[in-house]
Amino acid sequence: MRISEVTAHSGVPATTLRYYEQLDLITSTRASNGYREYGPEVLERLSFISVAKKMNLDLEQIKWLLQVTATGTCTNTRDALHPVLADRLREVKDSIRRLEELKALLERSLEHVATCPDSSEPCQSECAFKALI
Fold this sequence. Notes:
two-stranded antiparallel ribbon, single chain
């Protein structure tokens, strides 16, 4: 497949395909006219990359995982992938916890600010954030 066909089938822009090729995430050969030619396996690799990116894995991790899946058994792949996913899940849970704490602080702040009295005087401490800490 030419680069335009890969783009049409995968939705991945040609610039991204070239970048992935520079990083050795995908490969192509050169036709006699100089055009890149991709094998059918590139679509599967692009799908793998897409899912891994949705999990917020970085491109180095993705490259390593692609190498493991290409050269290893299912057992090796599972054993390599499991700790990566477990670490990522821990990171996401920590992010969710921090976001929940932020949400609670914002909700308290919003309630607090809503009760501030109308006044043409300079703001007193009862409306300041420091009252919430």
